[in-house]
Amino acid sequence: MSIFPHAKNFTVNGGQFDIYNKTEPDKQTTPPGYFKGMTHCPTSAHTFTGREEVLTTLEEFFLSGYAAARMKTFLLYGLGGAGKTQIALEFTKRFKQRFTAIFFITADQEVSIQGSYFDIAKTNGVQDAQSWQAGLHWLHSHEDWLIVIDNADDPKIPLSRYLPSCDHGNVIITSRNPDLRDIANQNMELSDMLPEEGIQLLVKHAIKDLHNISEQQHKVAAKIAEELYYFPLALVHAGAYINRQQCLFEYLDRLGNQREQLLCKGPQQPKDKYYYSVYETWNLSWLQLSPDSRLFLGLCAHLHYEHIPRSLFERGVKNLSMVESPLGPSRAVTEAKLILQRIATSEMNLDDMKLDDIMDDAASYSLINKESGGYMFHPLVHQWLKDTIKDNHRQAIEGIVVLAVKDISQKDYKFLQRLSPHVRILQDSANSDYVVRLAVGCIWFELYKFQEAINMWEPLLDIMIDRLGPEHRLTLYHEGRMAWAYGESGRANKALELQQKLVEISERVMGEEYPDTLTGSHNLAVTLRVLGRTNEALVLEQSLLETSKRVLGVDHPYTLNTTQNLARALGELGRTNEALEVEQSLLETSKRVLGEEHPDTLNRTQNLARTLGDLESSRREHPHTLDRIQNLAGTLGELGRTNGALELKQSLLATSKRVLGGEHPHTLNRTQNLARTLGELGRTNEALELEQSLLETSKRVLGGENPHTLNRNQNLAITLKSLGRTNEALELEQSLLETSKRVLGGEHLDTLNRTQNLAVTLRVLGRPNEALELEQSLLETSKRVLGGEHPHTLNRTQNLARTLGELGRTNEALELEQSLLETSQKVLGEEHPDTLSRTQNLAVTLKSLGRTNEALGLEQSVLEASKRVLGNEHLDTLDRTENLAATLEKLGRTNEALKFKQSLVKTLRRVLGEEHPDTFSRTQSLAITLKSLGRTNEALLLVQPLVKSSKQILGINHPGTFSISLTLALTIRALGQSSEAFSLLQTLVGKYKTFMGYEHPQTLRVTQHLAGTLLELGRTHEALQLQQSILETSRRVLHPNHPTVLTAIQTLAVIFNALGDHNNALQLQQPLVEQSKQVLGNDHGDSLTRIQNLAITLRNLGRFHEALQLQQSVIEISKRIWGPEHPSTLIKIQSLAITLRKLGRLNDALEIQQTLVVVSKRVIGSDHPFTFRRIQNLSTTLAYLGWRNESLELMNPLVDKSIQVLGENHPDTLYYIKSLKLLESFPN
User: Fold this and answer.
1) Is the pLDDT of residue 615 over 50?
2) Is residue 517 within 8 Å of 506, Cβ to Cβ?
3) What is the pLDDT of residue 3?
4) Which one, out of 5, 636, 685, 1091, has a CA that is 20 to 30 A from the CA of 126?
């Protein structure tokens, strides 16, 4: 104190010297705002509810060891009526024992604050207090007090001046002004309550007897609270009104009809002494705002309450010089310009400081909140503004939108996306301003919401034609955009009609080589392609490309676009290698032309001083270049070069995210394309994860009913199906189809595609009759809408034929496929990929009808064409190799089939990898062939690790895993391990029933294998019971001629024979043979097998001559159809030999069997189980002839060989050992 050696009676307060003299008191000792006891702290309302999270935060800040080098200050800020004061009071009530003193200061005026500090001094015994600073002095010299500074809303009051400047004490400030955060240690914004807290608060005020509230009352209260956004003051006043009027159940209707009156109505006897209504509370703040702040709040009231972009005003100001539309003056634009001039600089840029001042003024009362890049309202404040502001600025804000979207393009996508919810609200009102409607349509067009663009533009077209004329450039421009929107929304015929007219006018008015004419012709070609008229499109695009090169130059962006479309048309026509060549050259040109010479790249170079390497990066990131990379990747995929396509698409997606943003529509499309490629590579779980995330983004960005979002739902369903989650896919597709019908219409191209996908799913789930009904109706619609020769119609014809085949209506399927192939050859060409696929499908149908040699000829031809057109390693070529091998196997040329399959597996492991689903299925097929050749141990070595890999990669419940597990079970059974096979099959049947359904054809087939295994285990009666159940179910759910039904009858007959019930077997087999002949034909392999089985039954019944006659007939047909050395023919010859032996014609039997053993060794191998059985049968015949030694010479090595090949415990080995012992017991 050496600076003022004689000074006394003063304090230092915030750098100010407050000096007073006890001996010479000022005559004005009492501040004008003072009254005794004014700082007494009231208690919170007895209905106070919830807010525990806020109270806990306050407790932790003030009482739980928060360390501060100065006084602790906490700001509670937010809208008037958010409950700030009540929370502060509840805190003082709960923790008053923790503070030495608590004071309550009403801070709405400075005199009130000063009077309060004077009261603090007087209350605490400072009798000689001469000014309000005496209260501050008392606080400086005492600790652990708490001050509540309430309603510090006026931004003009310098509140920091009135805070004690000491290193102790506690202050809670409540305010509507968020700027006070600068003077607080910690702050929290208050708004709505938690839902359950809000409901409780409403109920406390509305219903006195809280303990007897009914469930219905609670539900209604919950709806009211939700409608009021759980805002505390609104809930309190609504509850008081409900209690007074006893209108709980009527309140929502009253709120809907008279919202403004209700929210203007305050309580008659407020329990918390807050007299103002919700709207009155905010009206008080409104009166404090500047005229400009009121104006801009009024503008924003006509927008959505969330995420109002600041750039809306910035872009509007930049376009203030926009000239008048040819349609005439726009009142909306005129009003907008007058308002925007208030926030514009002389250079017509946004005056940021001016706009900041306007919005800061409103934000200081929490009437609007600032967020990154814009502003937002509380929903109730937004509603209050709409209800109470009488100045209608709606046209002005519409005009601002028009100015802001002038000259928009795809680069403005993010801005348009943010603007869209506000535009949606604006367009809901009837507005006759044509300029506004045109602008709103352009916004929807650029956001890919084409139907909404059409809705805005269609009513204006006649007006434009009337005012401007049909040949005015603006009329033609908007008709062209409408045509494009029609095409994108699935109305391709409507688009075609409009585009043909536009091209005709453009050629006549502006000339054939005018840029607009070329653009119109280009769009027409695209529509022709969509309608399946690809040859017409190709001719048009070839002509366009030549014109464009001549008129605009080879490097002009339009020429590049036309080149791309030409490549796409070539690809659709199956000329994929030509398309690839065009696209590779195009991509290099695009990098060169749009890179270095495009204004965007030049601007980036100038502004960011990129190096030469950066220029290269910029070159590759032009949006058109990205599109061309995507198209090139697609072509690589079509050529079977899927790994190359994957690398391109991964790089492309990363670039697209960086350049356009992760939520841009082009980025979303590229994400989908990447997911598709992952699926093709067998990385299905990765594809699923990508598609699920993509779908959520698409719903949020584009909307749940946007056509692109609907497509992503379909793609997700397809991926789920490929993972075996078919029921989930079905549920998704059923919902999707209903949405598609409602949003796009029943005859939209996408709706038709989704109908087909649903039918395929039903077929996969074993519901072919439902699929058939859908497909028949779909095909008729497709013919009517698209025409009988459209590619989609042809695909639907193919799908219908497949369903007919699965229903056993194979001849109908054949007739359909033959006609389809002729049409495909005529329309698409003989070597188009789709034509090749249809040729393959026809071959499959011919095989199912027993016409296997015809099928072989077709398959050999289609394989050669596939190699020539698509390449040796294209996935379709590899599929056709597998089909050819299966046909060779069916023809008994199993060793040839084996070579094909071994080569195929080797290729697939190299091309797709060992863990690809296609590699799994082909390896499984190879194992089956090895088993059929008697190389069962080799088959087992292949299939055992395959099951493990399939479980890891595809999942334990994937149909592919089920199928491979079935092959394992049957392989084990073939090795004589019937008990182990039974255990596996029993588990599999349970899986099929759970995931495919009890009545799915595949479930029935697997269950049939289980019945066969029971028969092998000697559990014949159990096998009988199970097989009878299978047959009953098959007959109920499938067509009588379905292969599963016919097989079930045959299997049941076999079991009856095993039980010795040959008459029952005969009763089943005789009509089965007739049915098989009728359905499949006399020469079909299945018909021959069933005749053979009937002959065996007749033989079992002792009707040897009838059996012999049948068998001789069957062998003649089999030799003619299959050949004399076909495995099936050999089986039938063996059965004939046994019949001859039964008839006592031992020498005839011997002659046949001796030849049969020689042929069997040569055709299927000496170690094949069938060869073993034929040797054993020959041995038996020799024994019957009394040639014991010759018989033993055969049996002794057979037993050794069987032990070596099949194992000593194999049933066949045990049977051979038993036969040998019996022979040895015979006398010489």
Assistant:
1) no
2) yes
3) 44
4) 5
